[in-house]
## 1
Amino acid sequence: MRKILTPQFFRRPTLTVAKDMLGKFLVRRIGKKEINLMITEVEAYDGPEDKASHASRGKTERNKIMFGDAGNWYIYFTYGMHWMLNVVVGSKGYPAAILIRETDKISGPARITKYLKIDKKFNAKPANKKTGLWIEDRPACAGRGVKIKPSMIKRNKRIGVAYAGKWADKPYRFTYVQQKS
DNA sequence: ACGATGATGAAC
DNA sequence: TTCATCATCGTA
């Protein structure tokens, strides 16, 4: 029982979507092969005022996808060598996105895109089966699926945004922490 | 602690 | 057209 997340999942308040993405599965199909990674850490980039967000200086050629429909991929190149994977969230016209920063098998946003062979060809494409890259919800009984409780979610400052003034201190990084038994 | 490495956006 | 910057990572 697997449910592919649709635009309406992403068309909600940024921080709500960020929290709800923990425990969901990022799925990449390459040929006949399917790679599944459970999302364990994300960062929210929320609105035109967020100085850590690409959208803080208005709409540009690169960030225009953030201003568009929820449920599309926003993929950009940074540090001369890395691709970052984000999904656009919130209402149309309101620039917001969630960066997928860590999964159960692969840690680090650039490592994830390298592992899944993701680059600019996915930018502005919808997250669905047709594009070969999407996000699924799964029940706790199916394989690695888990039920995320609020006590399992840690909130911290975002990484690599120290330049962003007071926005650098916002607890917009959400991490799923496994409970010790 | 630092260099790799190139697109992006803002200034000129 | 130039230039500083950058939502990172591997090696030291």
Note: The beta strands of chain A are 3-4, 25-30, 33-46, 73-78, 82-88, 96-103, 133-137, 153-156, 173-176.
## 2
Amino acid sequence: MYVVLARTPDGIVAHRLDDNGRPADEPELIDEEDLADWADLENDESNPRWVWDDSRKWYPQLLEGGVRIARCVDLRLSHSILRLSTLTAGSRLAMAPKGPWDSNIPLDLAPQPVADPHESLFDFHEAAGIDEPDPVAEFLLQREAIAQSSDPNRLNLLLAAESAGGLVAVEMKHGGLPWDADIHRAMLTSTLGPRPVNGERPAALEALLVEMRAALDGAEINPDSPAELLKALRRAGIPAESTRSWDLREIKHPVIEPLLTYKKLSRLMTANGWHWLDTWVVDGRFRPDYVPGGAATGRWGASGGGALQLPKQIRGAVVADEGWKFVVADASQLEPRILSAMSADRRMAEAGRGDLYEGIVATGAVATRAEAKLALLGAMYGATTGESGRLMPRLAQGFPQAIAMVEAAARAGERGEVVSTQLGRSSPLPSSQWQDIQAAANLDAASEARARSHSRSWGRFTRNFIVQGTAAEWALCWMANLRNALWTLTDGALTDGPHLVFFLHDEVIVHTPAELADDVVAIVRKAAADAGRQIFGALPVDFPVTAVTVDNYGAAK
DNA sequence: TACCCCAGCGCG
DNA sequence: AAAGCGCGCTGGGGTA
């Protein structure tokens, strides 16, 4: 059973469809304020798969009302996959001109739970000259595209995982990441000094500035402006090429050490200092917007507060509630394992029985673990120079099947072709500018070099796309399985029991009552093993998970 | 004032 | 031990 929800000028309309997508009864009109209660009843009666345009527009108010959703079809997320996938290339959906399902309506125009819920959306559409999109029609169009595709099963798994991710994203924002502002502030004070007033430098930065001036015989220096900093260094006879820490580290001069420290502390203050804390941590929770499918590869993005770049430095401020714990889990060496699974390289799978890098050393392909790691990174990113590039051929010799797969993806991208992940998410086409550059390749030597460079660059993107994208699919399946299993542990609202509070590409955090932490760890591991089987079938590729139970995120290494 | 781009750096 | 992939954010500095 499906229940498709739509907002109309008259209110919310619910369409019940049977498993064949045919109307099961007359559409039902629901008042906005009754939605959560109505959905709760519907869950009890038929446990449907909910179908709607965008989980971000429906699910928050259900969660507010204490209602959880087991599964859904997020039409917006699904549409963008089906639009590009080579598996659905001939479908009506893919052939149609771009429409409202291809645009991403800004969140602030989405209906809010309290104020008049549909008006802003209609205003937006009216202003933009867009017809109000019909979710039932779109759902049927998507079903048609999937049914006619060359591999409906893979696509169905992908879309289910993507939609589940959409639910998780809303749930994580709803629950929030527990954040202890006092600990954070204490950390800032101890490294930077007391919070400065009206834009002054904190004491620690001021002291470092004094130190730098002394090292420059009293000359002025402004480390906050890269351009001025470079000038100041050159005035002092320091041959700096850039002001990047990585480059500065190579220079021997007394000003360098305080400068590097300054940069580090200054970064802490601007990115995650007092202002960040005021802006992003409310009532002990950090609630960024997560953006499923935010990257072309299917990885999530995030906006607000830099959720996907929380420095290790401040993770100690992520503290579980009293009587609760965090289970912090990450998939070890995920991308190289994905590489071995999708290429069905049994030799590499065998090497991944334990630590994958050690396993590769054991085959004799390379000499050390560090070399194995570097070589694999090179294979997945397309390194051509440096040690990584140098080691690549050795890997190709030892694991021809795996390397041939990424090489083929790179060649396809260089020709401007599309590549796809294991479950059928396809890469975008290179830009028209890229095409123009290729078309102009035969004009002269400079054009040819330019075309070649852009071609190679897009090849590195497609090479990485298939691995990063398939890893993202694995992570989504992992999370979807995890979410379902956690739900069985307790009754009640989302935040009454173990629930996901953070996700970072190959890592999750579950906030859980302490007494359930061991159960959660077991669930996290099983969910990972299941994800591997769902995507790769019986292939003997392991996806081991490192899981620790901690009181704060900083303690998770 | 508003906006855009760049350099730099945090994360995987 | 290095420059190859994917992101978001800040502050500086320029332009309109």
Note: The two ends of chain A are 45 Å apart (CA to CA).
## 3
Amino acid sequence: MRTIPNARFWTRYDEVVINDLHGAVAARLKGVGQRYTTGREVLIRALAEAPRPLTAAELVAAEPRLSQSTTYRNLALLEQAGVVRTVTGTDEYTRFELAEELTGRHHHHLVCLSCGTVEDFDAPRRVEQGLADAIARLSSGTGFRAEGHRLDVLGTCAACAG
Amino acid sequence: MRTIPNARFWTRYDEVVINDLHGAVAARLKGVGQRYTTGREVLIRALAEAPRPLTAAELVAAEPRLSQSTTYRNLALLEQAGVVRTVTGTDEYTRFELAEELTGRHHHHLVCLSCGTVEDFDAPRRVEQGLADAIARLSSGTGFRAEGHRLDVLGTCAACAG
DNA sequence: ATTTATGCAAATCGTTTGCAAACCT
DNA sequence: AGGTTTGCAAACGATTTGCATAAAT
């Protein structure tokens, strides 16, 4: 999954968003007393260009400049800084994507039960509204303080369905 | 199939459901050419009595009769037989619960971002209906064949909130 | 110059597996 | 008996970490 000539195919976020993105990442890192190094920028760029959450191995494979240990270290750091979010599929790999607070795009995931890949998808506004309402009401009953939700649709991806 | 002295505190499913449960598990195992051994029954009982998904370590700790390797082996086997389902929280442990097909109780999870524990909760019918509709419509668009969904509410549990 | 980040290789730890003994039918 | 299941201990593999070097301020 290297950088492809025709980048537009892979790009999830337009130029403006991307430009803001690096500034926002730098700001968040500075807020936690961390630098926005070249290696970290490479990582963020790879995540921003991917059409779906990626595993650490995919990131390393996509960007020869990234070493395994530093990739894991920076992913953990970026997660703590609120820049990156981890995504769990059905296989043994942790996947990573940009935090919604940065992209401004709330979305959910299609998880393939066969191969484990995770694709993005958007739920209808009506569904999101219903979820938000239910979750808001939830807190009062259980003592659980809700901060967000994740909705995964499990099934078989187009590639595996054949 | 005896009843445990103070079972009520922990029991999620009433006697009738539990009794059917063991028969259903046995049937499913037989369907995959496997036996319903004593050890597997202990495992199922522990899962049925727990008020939330448990980790393998919790299961072993709860039941001295269970050895670690057999527990993992049987959990994997029971999952393949459609008896057990794995649940992913935010920590490094895989959790296990009875499959909804067996319990007949569709539910979702409250995942604590602080300590990682997972509690069960039921979404309002209206939300479930909205999800079902959205997912049904989804398949046509993407080539992804949906088979189910999982909805987790992320936040802070009562214990961690203090 | 001093602090922070990186890469390599070794360590970690939840989970899996090989093998001999115990179990079921 | 003949095949399956179990428990122990060793192996596995994704992720983490120690340490010496490179980069950033």
Note: Chain A has seven helices and six strands.
